[in-house]
Specification:
341 residues, alpha/beta, TIM Barrel, six-stranded parallel β-sheet, two-stranded parallel sheet, 8 strands, 47% helix, globular, binds zinc ion
């Protein structure tokens, strides 16, 4: 990579918002704190976040098959608690936000704003009334399901096997969408299957996102979006975050650039963002998940985001498009969806 592009990328990261719309931070912090580690975010992540000029991070709350169904609720609550505890000593630098006002204040004070999102409604079991509890705990987004079937919807594939499983959104899932939209939570379609995607298009009244999914045409995988899905997310004012896992992107950063270019061409420059889905940290704490998926990250940590930006510049993507992709587009979406206060 030529130095001129790296310098240019660094400048963009310094001057414009940087958003990662998907990172399993809460799950990892929970596992590490359970093992006795403390100040996980401060020691392991803050320097890399700062290097990337990161402004907003969506932390997913992810419960693995191992803990479902009985331990799902406990794990999800534990992850939220663990993240709050871990961020307490560094709250002047990074904090959970739950409203537009909180987001603006964090941006103004140059703190990293963390938004919480459930990666699947599994912790609710089939008790939709618990949705409000998670909202009250600060959760502002959710996918109906991870790559599995639950009471609300069916995932895009059988986890670890990558074969499509049939079944769309259930009646309870439709009611969940209604309630999420009424509460002020965004719906995330990453991990939803084809039938479910169609069902959501029929019942959703507000824009929805695909926080960490790439383009099927560039790399066929059930987790990636087909052209009509890309267009449907964009037509409703949603945003698609490019995913830096080899499983979904392909073998190298050039391939990730191709996904970004393809999505920008199909969805429009205003509808593409970043949801890196960096997994190495979580895999370290729960090796079994890694064993099931055989996956790796194209970026070792957030500090390497500049290399991706530099590569997009070298590929000839317009600077305005890169600024949108890097953060402006997701930021616009969150400002639109989050409650005022
Ligand atoms: Zn995911």
């Amino acid at each position: 990579m030529e130095q001129i592009f790296l310098d240019w990328a660094r400048q963009i990261h310094k001057e414009h918002p940087v958003v990662d719309a998907h990172f399993d931070l809460a799950a990892e912090v929970y596992e590490r704190r359970l093992a006795g580690e403390r100040n996980v975010v401060e020691k392991r992540y803050l320097p890399c976040f700062r290097q990337a000029g990161l402004n907003v991070l969506v932390s997913s709350i992810y419960v693995s098959d191992r803990d479902l169904p009985e331990q799902g609720l406990r794990r999800a609550l534990g992850q939220i608690a663990a993240l709050h505890e871990d961020l307490e000593p560094v709250k002047d630098q990074i904090c959970v936000v739950t409203s537009k006002k909180g987001l603006e204040q964090a941006l103004w004070e140059k703190k990293i704003a963390v938004l919480l999102s459930l990666e699947g409604l599994d912790p609710l079991g089939s008790d939709l009334m618990l949705l409000r509890i998670f909202y009250d705990l600060g959760v502002r987004g959710a996918g109906l399901t991870w790559s599995r079937r639950n009471a609300f919807a069916t995932g895009c594939c059988k986890a670890g096997e990558f074969r499509e499983i049939p079944g769309g959104i259930t009646e309870l899932g439709r009611e969940a969408v209604r309630q999420m939209e009424a509460l002020g939570m965004w719906v995330d379609v990453s991990h939803l299957n084809l039938d479910g995607f169609k069902d959501l298009c029929a019942c959703a009244e507000k824009p929805f996102i695909a926080s960490h999914s790439n383009a099927w045409e560039i790399h066929p995988n059930y987790r990636n979006l087909k052209d009509d899905q890309i267009e449907a997310v964009a037509a409703r004012g949603g945003v698609i975050g490019v995913n830096a896992c080899t499983l979904l992107a392909g073998p190298d950063l050039e391939q990730l650039c191709r996904h970004a270019e393809y999505l920008a061409a199909r969805a429009g420059e205003n509808c593409v963002g970043i949801g890196l889905d960096l997994c190495r940290g979580l895999y370290e704490t729960t090796p079994r998940i890694h064993f099931e998926t055989e996956n790796d990250d194209l970026l070792a940590h957030h500090g390497e985001m500049e290399q991706f930006t530099a590569m997009l510049l070298a590929c000839g993507m317009r600077e305005e498009a890169i600024i949108g992709l890097l953060g402006e587009n997701f930021l616009r979406f969150f400002r639109q969806v989050l409650p005022e206060t």
